[in-house]
Structure formats: C-alpha cells, structure tokens
Amino acid sequence: SGFFRQMAEEVKKGNKEVVAVQNRLAEIGLIVKFVWRDLS
User: Fold this and answer.
1) Domain count, the chain
2) Range(s) of the domain holding residue 22
3) Cα separation of 4 and 36, whole Å?
C-alpha cells in the first residue's frame, strides 16, 4: 500500500507541474497575442 501511495503522490506532484507549465504557456500566449495585435 505504501508503494501505491507513493505513486499517487508522484502523480499528484507531476500534475501540479503540468498545470503550472500550462498556465505559463497560456500567459505567454496571451502576451504574444496582444503584442502581435499591436504590431499588425
């Protein structure tokens, strides 16, 4: 049971990191969109 609990913790940690990366990409995408609109 300890093994599965550890696996679950790793998955949760990984999901948090994935969400953080997705949020960062979304922010960058918005910035690029605004800059692109200003330039064109």
Assistant:
1) 1
2) 1-39
3) 47
